Structure to design on (133 residues):
């Protein structure tokens, strides 16, 4: 593998979501937004709900909605491990917006951790598709 590329894998609890070579990866962690380029220093950080933006080696952009998890960088390998991960092209934007609006309108108990997590997951999916557009 060339030093000019990253080998990236995005994995959810259910499946391998994306794998390939990339020139850059952006992700949000508990420490803030992280930009990863080839030869990045090794790190392990907590991923927060949102999206991961991958600039593939062919200059194509891949955006993946992610749940909380981990990001690991070592020797030009980037591993994104999330409880849930969904490529933006698999997300039905209008359906997710309606689901989110319905959840907000019914006044879902955002003090309940499970309800808050579901609402945040819907928001992450909407942001991923909007960012990809």
């Amino acid at each position: 593998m060339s030093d000019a590329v990253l080998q990236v894998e995005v994995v959810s609890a259910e499946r391998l979501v994306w794998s390939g070579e990339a020139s850059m990866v952006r992700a949000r962690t508990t420490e803030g937004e992280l930009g990863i380029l080839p030869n990045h220093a090794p790190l392990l950080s907590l991923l927060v709900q949102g999206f991961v933006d991958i600039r593939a080696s062919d200059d194509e952009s891949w955006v993946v909605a992610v749940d909380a998890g981990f990001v690991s960088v070592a020797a030009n390998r980037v591993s994104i491990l999330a409880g849930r991960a969904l490529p933006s092209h698999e997300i039905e934007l209008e359906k997710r917006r309606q689901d989110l609006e319905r959840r907000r309108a019914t006044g879902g108990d955002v003090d309940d951790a499970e309800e808050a997590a579901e609402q945040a997951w819907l928001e992450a999916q909407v942001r991923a598709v909007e960012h990809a557009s």
Observations:
- The domain at 6-87 is CATH 2.60.15.10 (ATP Synthase; domain 1).
- DSSP finds two helices and nine strands in the chain.
